[in-house]
Amino acid sequence: MPNGWMTKTQFFITFAVALLPALFIEFWLHRKISKTPGARINLPNKEYWLAPERRAETFAYFGAFFAWYGCAFLFVIAAVMGMAMRANLDPTPQLPTTPTVSILVGFVLFNIVAIGGIYRRFSTTRK
What we know:
Blueprint: H1 8-34, H2 46-49, H3 52-89, H4 97-122
Helix pairs in contact: 1-3, 3-4
């Protein structure tokens, strides 16, 4: 239940700060990983996937993966914060349980599929 403990300015600052992890994942993480020495990267069959002839392709995959992951993370943040804003505008403010749980369950499933996809992609040395 909203209780008025935060001003609008504080709320929007909190919202902006909540967006930072998504932006970090989407725009910075894959660049950081691509500059990391191969010895420090934990990847199945990394000798194969980080070989000079495949290294650019591997990091291009990571770039696309983290861009989509960042979008999914951003969707979760925006959707939940949007529901919080809408709840505060109702005369009887209450965060809707079913959509909130659905979004979180969807994100957990997205994580499972994403991890499975990475494992499937890099667990073999064949394309």
